[in-house]
Design a protein that fits this description.
The chain has 336 residues and is of the alpha/beta class. It contains 13 helices and ten strands. Helix 4 (111-122) runs parallel beside helix 5 (137-146). Strands 1, 2, 3, 4, 5, 6, 7, 8, 9 and 10 form a ten-stranded parallel sheet that branches.
């Protein structure tokens, strides 16, 4: 099996988007089956461990301090409360537990509690993921030493559109944090958001940026904008109208992500609760093999375990069994 390419051109990726829909989905399904079982989907759970009050001005985010979304700022959750949520997620079939904090970047005073959370969750046999904003090199190293499996830091959109969505940081800031995560030896989770008024060329741009990183993100979340009243993009949906991405174009995006990053987990993330079963089925055909479970993501609604269970039964899908989490492996090898 050949190694994944990191030399994709934008023209090559644009040509994939332009393929007839059935041909594109067929190619993506073929690539998927070369590396993954077609009937297995990874289940992850996402918990907001610190909500609201973020200094960033992301136009899509209800947790930004500049948004008038009604989301109240909270303090960092107690470690034991986080571990209780992780235990419940495991009981519900999740193999990865993701923890998100609404920060521009974590403060050093917060790191001891964060480290406790990582160690506690990995001790349950779950894969661990954190999304805490931008990281300093020493913070990335601390997380690596604690055994963190994945760090999420989405690039959101194309380099060309980035400044229209966020003004308090740059795309280079995002890429710098991803470089720090890779250097520390932590798996990268990074994807984008579609349905923010972008063009297809912007969707080409975000996938090109991810597919030409020194190594592909091990997880690639594909989010559909969940418009929230009081956010810049949520209000734009009403006046002036912002065009919502249709299901066929969303499936195309998933398919191109699968082809260009064949060994990555491609995750259906935000926006899935509003997708029909048929649209989700097409996404799974096109190479998506990971979802978030539960009734809520960070602050947005999610499909829920019962609905997902019924969908899996209809489609003949089953939860993917996780390999030994990196943190547990490190502990075991150190003891041997």
């Amino acid at each position: 099996m050949t190694a994944p390419r990191t030399d994709w051109t934008r023209d090559e990726i644009a040509a994939l988007f332009d393929l007839p829909f059935t041909e594109l989905v067929f190619r993506a399904a073929t690539v998927h089956r070369e590396r993954f079982a077609a009937d297995e989907v990874q289940l992850s759970t996402l918990l907001s461990i610190k909500t609201g009050g973020c200094a960033e001005d992301c136009g899509y985010c209800s947790q930004s301090a500049s948004a008038n979304s009604g989301v109240e700022a909270t303090k960092l959750m107690d470690v034991q409360a986080v571990l209780q949520s992780a235990a419940q997620a495991k009981d519900n079939g999740s193999s990865r537990f993701c923890m998100g904090a609404a920060w521009r970047n974590p403060k050093d005073r917060d790191m001891p509690a964060i480290i406790e959370m990582v160690k506690g969750v990995r001790g349950m046999g779950l894969e661990t993921c954190m999304t805490l904003g931008m990281l300093e090199p020493h913070q990335a190293q601390q997380l690596a030493e604690a055994g963190l499996d994945y760090y999420n830091h989405n690039i959101d959109t194309s380099p060309e559109k980035y400044a229209e969505i966020i003004t308090t940081r740059t795309m280079d800031d995002r890429l710098d944090t991803l470089a720090q995560v890779r250097k520390a030896g932590i798996n990268v989770c990074s994807g984008g958001i579609v349905g923010m008024g972008e063009t297809r060329d912007d969707r080409v741009g975000v996938l090109h940026t991810l597919a030409t990183l020194p190594s592909h993100p091990q997880s690639v979340p594909i989010n559909a904008l969940v418009p929230v009243k009081g956010t810049v993009l949520g209000d734009m949906l009403a006046d002036p109208p912002l065009a919502k991405i249709d299901d066929v174009e969303f499936v195309r995006t998933v398919a191109v992500a699968r082809i260009t990053m064949p060994a990555s987990m491609v995750r259906l993330s935000a926006g899935r609760e509003s997708m029909s079963d048929a649209a989700q089925a097409l996404c799974f055909m096109a190479g998506a093999n990971s979802i978030f479970t539960g009734d809520r993501l960070l602050t947005a609604p999610n499909a829920g375990d019962d609905k997902d269970g019924a969908l899996f039964a209809r489609l003949g899908l089953k939860p993917m069994v996780a390999e030994e989490p990196r943190g547990c492996k490190l502990l075991r090898e150190a003891a041997e």
